Amino acid sequence: MLPKLFSLAVVATFIVDITAGPISLDTVLDIVKRELPSTHRLHERHLSPLVHKWTKKEKVPRAVNLPMRIGLKQVNLAAGDKRLLEISDPTSFHYGNHMTPDEVIDFFAPPQSSVDAVITWLTESGIAADRIGQSANKQWLQFDASVEEVESLLYADFFLWEHNSGSEDIAAEKYHVPIHIQEHIDYVTPGTRLRTGSAKTPSSMPSKKRAASLSGRPDVSLLPGFPNPNSTTCSIYVTADCTRAQYSIPNGTTAYPGNQLGIFESSNDHYSRQELDVYFSTLYPYIPNGTWPEERLIDGAVGAIEDPSNFTNVEDGAESALDFNSAIPLIYPQGTVLFQEDDQWYESHGGYNGFWNTFLDAIDGSYCTYSAFGETGDCTDPDCLDPVYPDPNPGGYKGQLQCGVYKPTNVISISYHQVEGELPDSYFKRQCNEWMKLALQGVTVITSSGDVGVGQKSQCGGDEKQIFSPHSAATCPYVLAVGSTQWDRFANATGPELPYEKLNEVATTRFASGGGFSQIFGTPSYQQEAVAAYFAQVESSLPFDGYDNFVVDGNYSSVSSGVYHRGGRGYPDVAAVGDRQVVFTGGQWQLIGGTSLSSPVFASAITLINEARLEAGKSTLGYLHPVLYSNPQVFHDVTVGHNPGCNNSPGFPAAKGWDPVSGLGSPNFPALMDLLLKL
């Protein structure tokens, strides 16, 4: 595999070599004289909206060597979805036959015929076979070649380009390949893509935090003194005991090896071990002190922090505390795993927009060089810039990007989101393919749906900020998205609330459960009937209309009317309690709400069911969507509430069956366990 920063070193080399300044007459004549043979066709050209921040500079000298990569077209992307449905269909003979990581690589690898065709083209063009290598994940070919060789190969002219941030890259405005080769390759790099590389943010400039954010924590209520943290009044104080009582979840009794619940954290939010001990000692004395998550720290990340004053811009830890305070008591004696990504420089200073890629790199080594939708590896484009390792910034992690250093847990809970349109579609699609690959391996990825209903005004689309803005990764059809509910006393209830009294479950009211329809991903087959049934109930009463076309890269110019995408993947899929959770963080007892609670609660339920399946000698559940949508009876249907947002839009209403507020509903755990344990 080529070194991650090799292309940057090449840039530095030819910058030194270029001393002639303006383009010479010989170079101009060389460009004009090149004639394209009839055997070749244009393969890629610059898209003008993507180069407006770049200035074309000098022609790259012919003697400069370039590290070339040719991304081979993957096969079986559609077949991957079909295979996933097959092993997730309870009626299939192949149910539960999950794939190994190597089997996944081989399944999506380009056919050998494509590899042979491209190598033959290269060797016949003068690139010796012993100069050509293939990546470990089999998705691209690599070789070093001079600019002269590459320009002759691709009928292209390579220039030095400068970004307005000061970073530089090399690229051609267009390139060509033989007609018979086009079907085998996705793209060539260096080619037309311009990337900013690892140029760090100058210390004199304000740093930009990553665009992704926590999905929840819209309201934090301090509980001074909190005289009764063991309260059984579940409409006021939500604890794991309340969650067990409302959803009929039994106490955990086993800890099957390797079945810990994985919890993802980022954005400089860190838990405290001391505060976890206080929480357990007060509410759950049967959980011994020291019951902390196993820390799987990625690219120099920091796990628990006891003294925030020793770090820069550390958050108060409420998100991490919420995740572990809610999950650990539900699954104990089973444990948890913390996946914390990125070093403290990136976490505290920002300077990048991408999200989840370094996490996915760490749990699947092939993702580090995975090519799809014109992207290979982590994004270096300014529109989706990911952290770069080794981190060149002061105090940054100086090790290499961590690829495949950790095994994913069977269930992973994520309480963070990214708004569709804030990153290129190709970024989200490449990630969604990776969520699919994890599902093929029996991993269930669960995420919160967000806390701003159909969209936060500042992030909504259109000139008047009226177009709904769905949230990733909830919109990926291979991720289980969880909306939020709250427990209230029934309207006819009288007298004081009884301990663990059965309560009425409705959509949250202090904040809006995130939901809607993707602008990037279409409605998956498992969901089509449920979505149609929803609109049959409510469409005539909606005060807004939808639009039919996909929105490309957040450009809403094609939307002439309507505020939601009719043909999009609907979310959330399910729901769970998302408000009034008792948490101990920052040295205080607090009540915290958000779908950041809903995700670990539902993930805990699935972890318990996996526990029972593994004890019975069965496989993990993996991809749950088809079986859940086929069995809505295992949920408490939530029919009261709505999710406003986007310029005070009323949003979508809850309804019978699936809806884009509470999904299929909250778990009826005994029914859910009975269904899934029998599979």
TrEMBL record:
Annotated signal sequence range: 1-20
SUPFAM superfamilies documented for this protein: Protease propeptides/inhibitors, Subtilisin-like
Major enzyme class: hydrolase
The Peptidase S53 domain, residue ranges: 237-679
GO terms, molecular function: metal ion binding; serine-type endopeptidase activity; tripeptidyl-peptidase activity
Superkingdom per UniProt: Eukaryota
GO biological process: proteolysis
Location within or outside the cell: Secreted, Extracellular space
Keywords: Calcium, Hydrolase, Metal-binding, Protease, Serine protease, Signal, Zymogen
Binding-site positions, Ca(2+): D637, V638, G657, D659
CC per GO annotation: extracellular region
The reaction(s) this protein catalyses: Release of an N-terminal tripeptide from a polypeptide
CDD domains: Peptidases_S53, Pro-peptidase_S53
Segments of this protein annotated with the region Disordered: 195-216
Active-site positions on this chain: E319, D323, S596
Name by which UniProt lists this protein: tripeptidyl-peptidase II
